Task: structure prediction
Amino acid sequence: MSKDSFDHHVSRRRLVQLAAAGTLAATTLGASGGSAAAQDASAGSTLARIRAAGKMRVAALVGEPPYFAKSALTGEWAGACVDMANDIAKLLEVEIEFVDSTYGNSVIQLQTDKVDIAMSLTPTPVRSLSINFSKSYFLHGYGLVAPDSLKVSTWAELNNPDIRVAVDLGSTQEMAARRFAPKANITAFATRDEVMLALQTGRVDCAVFAALLGMTAVKKNPAIGKFSMLTEPVIGLPACLAIPKEDNQDWKTFLDVWVEYNRGIGQVTEWLTNGMKLAGVEPDDIPSDVKL
Result:
């Protein structure tokens, strides 16, 4: 591994040091009186408040493997982002509270102090006006779910008014399809389940999916077709940790280093690969051009 590829080999010990530094002031004031410590925790960073409360509140996406999956029997959470959250909480020596959420709701929950972190959001210029983001832990590519009879592998081939394309409304899938295949006959459905139903019933010819979501959808319902990456160009948008917008940068600094460290040692890839197994997608099922 080169020196530049991994932030000069930041160690796990350094992660703990950064976390501790974020609450140094609160610890010092705590020795002189409980009221001073409480005042500092309230005025300080999200990181300081998490450490003071002993709890990290995580926006958990219900039914979104490989990131999140919740057992209907036990209520226990699993998935790649659950593993990430557990690792962060272990470093901070705090407990986790998972708060039921959706992609859209998680932004509002961060703005209204309902959660401290959302684990899998794509940064957009509009979102950046109201919340902040860590460095990217994964570059999410885009592809197509379609039957074998549809021979499309590039965006230019998809850019055809005779091809009926499904996307989920307001998603990055819709953004990519309308930007790179504007001439296609695109229909936006309210939910991803409606996209899958449209595929199964033949109301559309194909659907644009982000790679992990596409592979998961096909495994859940093989009747909708197969997933393959779209090329020329290869499109990828970052997946990041989302956090409240604040002047104090302790929380963001810690998470940026955490991302660099775990991406550099291949831990993020392992978490994502294990998360895919929750949807029945084994490592051999992942196309070679999908990079986790």
